[in-house]
Amino acid sequence: MKSSNTKRNIVLGILFFLPVAFLLMLYPAKHNYEPLNIVNTKVSEVSSFNSDTDETIQLKEHITILGFLGKTPLKKAIAASNLKELVYDKFMGFKNFQIIIVVPEGVQEDVETLKSEITTFEALEYWHFAYGTEDEIKQLYNSLKFQTELDSDLSTENVFIIDKDLNQRGRIDGREKKEIEDNKPEFSVYSYNTIQVADIKNKMSDDVRILFTEYRQRRKGDFDSNTRRAEDLKQTNE
Predict the structure, then answer these.
(1) 211 and 62 Cβ atoms separated by less than 8 Å
(2) Pick from 205, 162, 170, 174: which is nearest to 191 by CA?
(3) What pLDDT, on a 0 to 100 scale, did the predictor assign at position 54?
(4) CA gap 175, 189 in Å, rounded
(5) What is the spatial distance between Cα 30 and Cα 177, in angstroms, rounded to a whole number?
(6) In this structure, are residues 111 and 130 in contact, taking their beta carbons and an 8 Å threshold?
(7) What is the CA radius of gyration of the chain?
């Protein structure tokens, strides 16, 4: 009996501490925390796009990963799979998190095939496909700050982080600590390459976690969003 109680207590202890450990991993330690820069404002909304859900989808009031898979989304299956396994599976279910993938009208059948390729068991509850005209897609993309143009088929391997206020987030100085110490040239991060696993698994996942931390601090009243916004925009425009 004593052995049985001991085993039960161990199991209960593990079940209790696992979520705590996960949250500790999710939110960076305060002394290592550096807010994610606002690199662009007034990103266009997607509420006028058709979607694969009965509800209207929108960027406002969500933490969104925004991507563009173009006229042949099945050719971007590796990018979609990386995004699903390395980002969506990690953050799905967190409050206001979503992935929105923009595609042209008329590729619904390919999208359904793609969905079945990247997921087997669970429904993509927090992953939406938005269907728009070519002009609508180009207008949305041009409202972003980017380093590479949208391909002729309206696709890109890069995805963007959009916050609840339609601000694009990234890094004004994207260098790692070692690169700064080695005096490497500065570069900005406006988007994240879904084919480069290290880029999406490390840098992008970290940046999404940092954005969640920011909103957690806002709820606690520990974050001065006005000062941060002004400073970020000043650096971006220099």
Answers:
(1) no
(2) 170
(3) 81
(4) 9
(5) 17
(6) no
(7) 20
> Is 33-237 a CATH 3.40.30.10 domain?
yes
Lowest mean pLDDT segment, chosen from 30-34, 73-77, 164-168: 30-34
Residue with token string 């991993």: 25
Q: Phi/psi at 165 (nearest 5 deg)?
A: -105, 20
Hey, where are the domains in the chain? 33-237
Rounded Cα distance between 110 and 232, Å, is: 39
Neighbours of 156 (CB within 10 A): 24
Mean pLDDT for 199-206 is 90
Count CA atoms within 13 Å of residue 187 on its CB side: 10
User: Which pLDDT score, from 0 to 100, does residue 29 have?
Assistant: 41
pTM: 0.80
Residues 6+ apart with CB under 8 A from 191: 144, 146, 147, 156, 158, 159, 160, 170
User: Looking at the predicted structure, is the pLDDT value of residue 143 above 60?
Assistant: yes
* DSSP states of 64-126: EEEEEB-S-GGGGHHHHHHHIIIIIHHHTTSTTEEEEEEEETT-HHHHHHHHHHH-SSS--TT
